[in-house]
Design brief:
By secondary structure, the chain is α+β, with helices and mostly antiparallel strands. Helices cover 17% and strands 42% of the residues. It contains four helices and twelve strands; from the N terminus they run αβββββαβααββββββ. The structure holds flavin mononucleotide.
Amino acid sequence: MTTVDRHSGHVDAADYRTLMGGFPTGVVVVTTTGAEGTPYGVTCSSLSSVTVQPPTLQVCLTSTSRVLAAVLGSGRFAVNLLHARAREAASVFASPVDRFAAVPWRPTPRLGLPWLHRDAFAVAECELARTLEIGDHTMLLGEVAAVDHADDVPLLYGRRQYSAWPGD
Ligand SMILES: Cc1cc2nc3c(=O)[nH]c(=O)nc-3n(C[C@H](O)[C@H](O)[C@H](O)COP(=O)(O)O)c2cc1C
């Protein structure tokens, strides 16, 4: 049953969450490097492609995120696409733990950003092209400068749980 807030004209937040929770996605860890080389990273499902020419993707981060602040400072970020065996890494990068002590990582070849080489089957190295604040999130538009890609099965997320690829 859909409800509409009579004052804002918006659909109820819980209904909106249910709607988008039913839209399955892959899972990525967005990383960047802060001052003095400190690595930052956060689990995200908001990745989508924007356009091919120039190769541009977008991710949305909550505006209070320390990772967002670090991306705005460095002007670049990496998108680590997690494979199906990386549920633990997905949980680590959504938790208040020492994230980079829990998983192996090394710098990406082009921009030197944190690369979760064990848990990611692909990484896209991006230059921050534009930002857009909407509500309590900030959309990051990144131009893809380099990719590293291996053939593997992606981790899926939907209906508030991780899932295996159908048939695997
Ligand atoms: C599967 C999954 C997808 C997520 N997607 C996003 C996202 O797209 N954007 C976001 O800001 N947070 C997302 N989160 C929540 C963050 O990972 C989580 O709030 C994290 O603790 C924030 O860390 P930070 O405070 O270091 O930014 C997601 C979490 C999970 C488990």
